[in-house]
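Deliverable D2.4 — example input (structure tokens):
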């Protein structure tokens, strides 16, 4: 066997397995190999198993990485973020924490409108300068693939600028970036009270440019009462599909509007938030194979109840967990805190949490075929933990247990 890299002395190799979203009770079945080794050729895993069964190698000696008896897991796939934006909303965070009502926050100039204003005013260089360190932080936390959304421009130029920023960053650092066009994040001032006309503008004027320049893989919409309701969301997502984008939804976060049902009807890749999703909607999602993405950091930050991830898994859904990093409702990319909240407040086991942060995150991006688990044939995206077991990811609450990050077969980050 030929290999460019050998990772040896792995105390515990823990990973979900498979090439698609893992549903329901299967989510707790992870593979655990003690005293393991992994062989990588270029960017791909070619063998893994007990070190005692390591196959004979031919060709030049591979690079050798000693895992020091620690645990190794797949790189995290953060399938829902808004990491490219202008400005901050730090004051608003404290207004909200102090109990100021939503409408009052808006009248003081907070809310998404303030991010839209700051993002419109930011140059491409400014967007790059603030987004790059966020990615660097993610990599330290073990995120090897991240999704990023536009949606703080709500006009042609700024939406395209956000997507271009992601393309430039994708080429200049280690984390893979999967871009999502989310022009329908909010109704901009210019279209106040005319959500339908704004959807027409997106479909006719913005989406064609996104497609022409291959700037996005997904189209997403904030499907909520008083923002983009079911009819507008359906029209937008159908147009996006026709033009070749895959689709996602911010669904049923605030009221049960039928977003989960719409996600199932349109075979969306994922529906996200789902705090208020109906049982009917969730069961239709399970049947249609839509990944349910839960965002516990957002619930934590907003002091809202958590999504019912336990019930979703028990109902046979595939659940992914993502950070929802954004300047308003959740300024955090903390995978460690998300893991702890998942176990302590969403009542998932550590095994289910690991699957939700890796393979199901990859499935929520249509990428379960080539990442999200450690198996021959998959990308060599993996984390050497600074801990003897994957259990420490939630047990050592809120702490970064990632020691080293290997991305596509190369050591790209060392924390210790
Ligand atoms: Zn979001």
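Example output (designed residues):
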């Amino acid at each position: 066997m030929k290999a460019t890299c050998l990772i040896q002395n792995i105390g515990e190799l823990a990973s979900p397995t498979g090439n698609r979203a893992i549903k329901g009770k299967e989510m707790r079945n992870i593979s655990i190999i003690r005293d393991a080794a992994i062989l990588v050729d270029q960017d791909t895993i070619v063998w893994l198993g007990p070190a005692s069964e390591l196959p004979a190698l031919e060709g030049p000696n591979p690079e050798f990485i000693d895992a020091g008896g620690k645990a190794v897991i797949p790189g995290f796939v953060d399938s829902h973020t808004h990491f490219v934006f202008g400005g901050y909303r730090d004051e608003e965070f404290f207004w909200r924490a102090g109990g100021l009502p939503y409408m009052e926050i808006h009248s003081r100039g907070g809310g998404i409108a303030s991010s839209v204003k700051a993002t419109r005013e930011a140059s491409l260089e400014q967007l790059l300068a603030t987004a790059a360190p966020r990615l660097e932080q993610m990599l330290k936390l073990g995120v090897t693939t991240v999704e990023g959304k536009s949606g703080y421009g709500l006009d042609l130029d700024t939406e395209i600028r956000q997507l271009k920023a992601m393309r430039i960053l994708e080429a200049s650092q280690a984390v893979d970036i999967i871009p999502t066009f989310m022009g329908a994040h909010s109704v901009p001032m210019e279209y106040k009270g005319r959500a339908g006309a704004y959807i027409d503008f997106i479909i006719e004027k913005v989406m064609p440019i996104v497609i022409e320049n291959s700037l996005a893989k997904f189209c997403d919409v904030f499907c909520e009462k008083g923002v983009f309701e079911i009819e507008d969301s359906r029209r937008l997502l159908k147009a996006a599909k026709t033009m070749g984008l895959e689709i996602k939804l911010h669904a049923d976060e605030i009221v049960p509007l039928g977003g989960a049902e719409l996600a199932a009807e349109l075979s969306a890749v994922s529906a996200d938030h789902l705090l208020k999703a109906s049982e009917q909607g969730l069961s239709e999602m399970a049947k249609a194979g839509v990944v349910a993405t839960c965002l516990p950091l957002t619930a934590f930050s907003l002091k809202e109840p958590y999504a019912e991830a336990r019930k979703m898994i028990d109902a046979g859904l595939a659940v992914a967990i993502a950070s929802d990093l954004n300047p308003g409702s959740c300024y955090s990319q903390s995978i460690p805190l998300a893991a702890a909240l998942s176990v302590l407040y969403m009542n998932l086991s550590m095994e289910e949490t690991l699957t939700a942060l890796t393979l199901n995150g990859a499935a929520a991006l249509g990428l379960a075929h080539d990442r999200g688990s450690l198996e021959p044939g998959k990308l060599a995206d993996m984390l050497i933990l600074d801990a003897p077991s994957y259990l420490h990811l939630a047990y050592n609450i809120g702490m970064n247990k990632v020691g080293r990050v290997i991305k596509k077969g190369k050591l790209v980050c060392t924390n210790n």
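The chain is about 35% helix and 25% strand.
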